[in-house]
Design brief:
By secondary structure, the protein is an all-alpha fold. It contains 13 helices and no strands. The longest helix is centred in the N-terminal third of the chain and has 44 residues.
Amino acid sequence: MHEPVKENISPEAAGNEPWTEKLSGVVALCLALAILVCGLWIYLPFFEPICWAIILSLFFHPLYQRLVRLLMGQRILSAVIMCFLIVAFIIIPALFLITSLTSEMVRVYTAGISNLQTMNVDLIPDPNRYPTLNKLTIKLLKAFKLYGTDLHGTLADLARSAGEYFFRKGTMVFRNIAVLIFKSFLMLVILFYLFTDGESMLKAFKGLLPLKKENVERFMKLTSDVLAATLYGNLFTGAIQAGLGIFIFWVLNFSAPILWGTILGLGTFVPMIGTAIVWAPASIYLLVTGQYLKGATLLAFSLLVISQIDYFLRPYLISGKTELHNLFLFLGIIGGINVFGLLGLILGPMIIALCMSILELYRLNLLEREQSWKSDLLI
């Protein structure tokens, strides 16, 4: 019998083989990362429609599931109906709202600058007619170091800066109608496939996470709860409060009801103050200027209807889910708008919600490790 031939491998080659394998692994990893970056770079121009499609699919997924059950499993037909409903009741009204909001911003900006430049009256109320308001105004001016300065010029500069900023943001959407139409169409196409194939995409995403199966499920559950609380409990109630604000300002014949109602809706995210940031000074102004019926109506409607949404509707929509703290929500919205523009109004809180989910998952895993460590010590 012939003995098996042994290959003569030098010690140098044997020692270098692991380094060759490590080098091959590093090269393969770098190549994979480069391809991934190129792929993300290709999708970067479509970042906005992709994000809007994901947001809308998350928000309307429960309604889509009910529609699928109602149509006996017809997923494609259900997705088509959902896209049509979103166009009819979300996209078209949103474009109308943005158009009206932009026109009101321009009108308020023009009228404010004109009034500030032409008015000759003192901005500080008459101490004989309005002594309380006079003292309050002087205290506020001293607090901001504006007492004794040219208030007309200062307010005109502030109004000009604010008006130019909001005018830029508002008209940015309509600079290129063709691009807007293309992005809206692309968003609808992505939204259709997210409705029909979103569950399989989510399953594939779960398989890519470098976590245990139970940790992946826990992470998805936490993320779902926080996003649901953010989307339904905060953004939806904010939109309802904005609609009620637009309604009451229109009934009371305010000059820009859509503008002030929208600001009131955004005020719901301001910690501690909330929607009172708009209706409180507006009510005080109406009462001080002698418009008692309007002032009392606005005050009563704001206290009994608008403010009560935070106490009744929001808890019902959240239903015990993990809610994002108002401070984090407020900073997420401000930072999101600064980074992503209008998209940041929703994307900012969603990113913060994901961060909180990751931290919560880390906390739960840490507690499990501590309990396991204590049990090992007892044994």
